[in-house]
């Protein structure tokens, strides 16, 4: 094509509506052109001068100092008016993502000139088969890229709870903030050119995001806190979405937002990666191991009363939340393509920085713990053994239980298209106790260099799987289990009510024996504090002990996450010991949401929120919080001074999201 060297352009029409629909970017709250790589887009150039033969031009797009030449073709459609030319422009499927300037470069003989046409943002493209993030299933693309709200699972393995989360990746400023997170990374500050050139690779981009969402190394988005008071910030339990957090960080000149815990880090990470076009979901692992030395063993120590002693840095979280993102692994090979684990919660350093992943779920399942990135840490989180010891003194301890099935239970994510829970444990490991699972575990031990020395070899893997309880007093051989037991909740535990439990013990051999039982209840956050203790003795063939923890005993000391650990340490005169534990999460009363009338786009609607107080006392200083993508620009907070039994409040919002689908996220504090 040819244009005169003195080209004059009246204006450029970016065909915003047409391109956004074709590129699945219509939901972004921005007037800027937002496009996906590897896919054509159309612009119309209105020329003030006529095109002449003998000259030609090229479209050049550049982000930072990284220019790329775009392939362009004149459209065959008839110009809408004289002087207008329609062009179809193609970007490479492996182009760097980010904000670009588009220039028209004109060549006439040996003279070159360029004219700035405007700016656009280029994203990853899950709809493009040649893009590394390509996802073939349309329903999955809608869920993992376009869905702006979701469910994060929390609680306990036997009491899984749903918590709504507003991702809001299309809300105003969120895409700009996501790009700013990349620019605030250590990698970018150390070498902007190299960092920018690597932004075509989802493996690189996702790892940078996992490091920058937490604040530990580079004044990232969220500062973590797991105990103590939250007076200088927001209690992590009070967040119900990412938008408020990201805007607070951005508008506060990149000051880390206080405070977050694992589900907050995962929710924010999901928002950022979906905003950039990488298919991402939130994963919850119940009984998640934090294995600091990666030896696949979590050692828990208790004293003779059953109280937890903090003698090791290892720990087990009743649940831990991370992310999975979908892309191919050119660095590892096609076998490891698919879902990749990312964890922005700052737990351990990886290559000197608090970051984790991406670790291929295929690598984790197959025990390939030597592969990048951090696959050994994630493997331990879902596979480590849980070993319990009674600590008598520095010279004497007793191994009473080794549980090979406790860690990595009910690994969960939200279903595609519904709020149901989907169990994805099979993506991480073979069935517990199977021959394949044992082979993978041994393979991982070998790759990690964990040798057959010390406490791990005194009982073989096969024997540990069938053991229930035994005594190993350092030099004595292990005894066969003689008693078993479990703690049973007599009723669903609700905050404000007494907790009723039964300890059921069973004699596994024929002789009668006397059992001394020490009962204790501890309030749990990340540390544990003794609340109640009792001791009884009984003779059993089969025996049940019923007891209760009254509301008056826990009401003044209950932590914000409402967790109580109940333990029963059972000892026989013959020397056998059994530790029975049960984590309890007290249920909050439900909020009932009723829409009062039809919901119509651009029309107001009244919403009634009802809360029933379960306590026999007046609740004061209550706060109702609400947020929703396309409904509220900021989180809504309504304070109530007094609430006795029923709170009813009609709320008014204008429904203006394009889909007309009514979505709300509500919670109380």
Automatic annotation (TrEMBL):
Query: Which cofactor names does the annotation list?
Result: Ca(2+)
Q: Mind telling me which residue stretches traverse the membrane in this protein?
A: none
Q: Supply one GO molecular-function term.
A: metal ion binding
Q: Which residues bind Ca(2+)?
A: 383, 385, 432, 437
Cofactor notes: Binds 1 Ca(2+) ion per subunit.
What EC number(s) does the entry state?
Answer: 2.3.2.13
Q: What InterPro entries does the record tag this protein with? A: Ig-like_fold, Ig_E-set, Papain-like_cys_pep_sf, Transglutaminase, Transglutaminase-like, Transglutaminase-like_sf, Transglutaminase_animal, Transglutaminase_AS
Keywords per UniProt: Acyltransferase, Calcium, Metal-binding, Transferase
Single GO cellular component annotation? cytoplasm
Annotated catalytic residues: 262, 320, 343
Q: Does the keyword Transferase apply?
A: yes
Enzyme's top EC category: transferase
The cross-references to SMART domains, in alphabetical order and at most eight, read: TGc (SM00460)
Q: Which SUPFAM superfamilies match?
A: Cysteine proteinases, E set domains, Transglutaminase, two C-terminal domains
Going by the entry's taxonomy, the superkingdom of the source organism is recorded as Eukaryota
Q: Which residues form the Transglutaminase-like domain?
A: 254-346
Which family does the entry's similarity section mention?
Belongs to the transglutaminase superfamily. Transglutaminase family.
> Record's PANTHER family?
PROTEIN-GLUTAMINE GAMMA-GLUTAMYLTRANSFERASE (PTHR11590), PROTEIN-GLUTAMINE GAMMA-GLUTAMYLTRANSFERASE 6 (PTHR11590:SF50)
Tell me what this protein is called: protein-glutamine gamma-glutamyltransferase
> What organism is this sequence from?
Strix occidentalis caurina
């Amino acid at each position: 094509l040819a244009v005169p060297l003195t080209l004059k352009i009246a204006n450029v029409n970016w065909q915003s509506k047409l391109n956004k629909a074709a590129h699945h970017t219509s939901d972004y709250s921005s007037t800027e052109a937002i496009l996906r790589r590897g896919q054509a887009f159309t612009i119309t150039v209105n020329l003030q001068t006529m095109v002449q033969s003998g000259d030609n031009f090229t479209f050049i797009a550049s982000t930072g100092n990284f220019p790329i030449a775009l392939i362009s073709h004149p459209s065959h459609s008839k110009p809408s008016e004289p002087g207008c030319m329609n062009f179809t422009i193609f970007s490479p499927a492996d182009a760097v993502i980010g904000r670009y300037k588009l220039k028209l470069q004109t060549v006439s003989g040996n003279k070159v000139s360029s004219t700035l046409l405007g700016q656009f943002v280029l994203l990853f493209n899950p709809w493009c088969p040649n893009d590394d993030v390509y996802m073939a299933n349309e329903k999955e693309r809608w869920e993992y890229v376009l869905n702006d709200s979701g469910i994060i699972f929390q609680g306990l393995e036997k009491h899984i709870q749903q918590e709504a989360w507003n991702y809001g990746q299309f809300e105003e400023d969120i895409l700009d903030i996501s790009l700013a997170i990349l620019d605030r990374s250590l990698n970018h500050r150390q070498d902007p050119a190299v960092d920018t050139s690597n932004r075509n690779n989802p493996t690189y981009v996702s790892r940078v995001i996992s490091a920058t969402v937490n604040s530990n190394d580079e004044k990232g988005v969220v500062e973590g806190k797991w105990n103590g008071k939250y007076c200088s910030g927001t209690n992590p339990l009070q967040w119900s979405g990412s938008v408020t957090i990201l805007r607070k960080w951005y508008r506060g000149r990149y000051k880390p937002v206080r405070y977050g815990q694992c589900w907050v880090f995962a929710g924010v990470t999901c928002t950022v990666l979906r905003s950039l076009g990488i298919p991402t979901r939130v994963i919850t692992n119940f009984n998640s191991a934090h294995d600091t030395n990666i030896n696949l063993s979590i050692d828990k120590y208790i004293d003779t009363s059953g109280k937890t002693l903090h003698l090791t840095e290892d720990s087990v979280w009743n649940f831990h939340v991370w992310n999975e993102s979908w892309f191919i692994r050119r660095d590892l090979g096609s076998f490891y393509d698919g879902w990749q684990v990312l964890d922005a919660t700052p737990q351990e350093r990886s290559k000197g920085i608090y970051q984790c992943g991406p670790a291929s779920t295929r690598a984790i399942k197959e025990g390939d713990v030597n592969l990048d990135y951090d696959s050994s840490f994630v493997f331990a989180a879902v596979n480590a053994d849980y070993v319990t010891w009674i600590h008598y003194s520095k010279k004497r301890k007793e191994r009473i239980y080794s549980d090979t099935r406790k860690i990595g239970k009910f690994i969960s994510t939200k279903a595609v298209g519904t709020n149901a829970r989907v169990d994805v444990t099979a993506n991480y490991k073979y069935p517990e106790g199977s021959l394949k699972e044992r082979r993978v575990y041994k393979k991982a031990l070998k790759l990690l260099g964990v040798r057959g020395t010390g406490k791990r070899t005194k009982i073989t893997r096969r024997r540990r799987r069938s053991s229930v309880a035994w005594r190993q007093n350092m030099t004595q051989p292990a005894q066969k289990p003689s008693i078993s037991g479990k703690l049973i909740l007599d009723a669903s535990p609700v905050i404000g009510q007494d907790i009723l439990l039964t300890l059921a013990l069973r004699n596994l051999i024929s002789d009668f024996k006397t059992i001394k039982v020490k009962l204790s209840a501890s309030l749990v956050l990340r540390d544990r504090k003794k609340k109640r203790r009792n001791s009884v003795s009984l003779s059993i063939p089969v025996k049940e002990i019923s007891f209760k923890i009254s509301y008056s005993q826990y009401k003044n000391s209950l932590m914000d996450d409402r967790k109580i650990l109940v333990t029963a340490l059972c000892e026989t005169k013959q020397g056998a010991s059994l530790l029975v534990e049960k984590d309890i999460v007290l249920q909050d009363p439900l909020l009932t949401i009723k829409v009062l009338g039809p919901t119509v786009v651009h029309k107001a609607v009244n919403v009634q929120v009802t809360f029933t107080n379960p306590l026999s006392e007046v609740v004061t200083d209550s706060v109702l919080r609400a947020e929703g993508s396309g409904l509220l620009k900021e989180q809504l907070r309504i304070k109530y001074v007094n609430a006795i039994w029923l709170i009813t409040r009609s709320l008014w919002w204008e429904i203006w999201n394009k889909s007309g689908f009514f979505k709300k996220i509500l919670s109380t504090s």
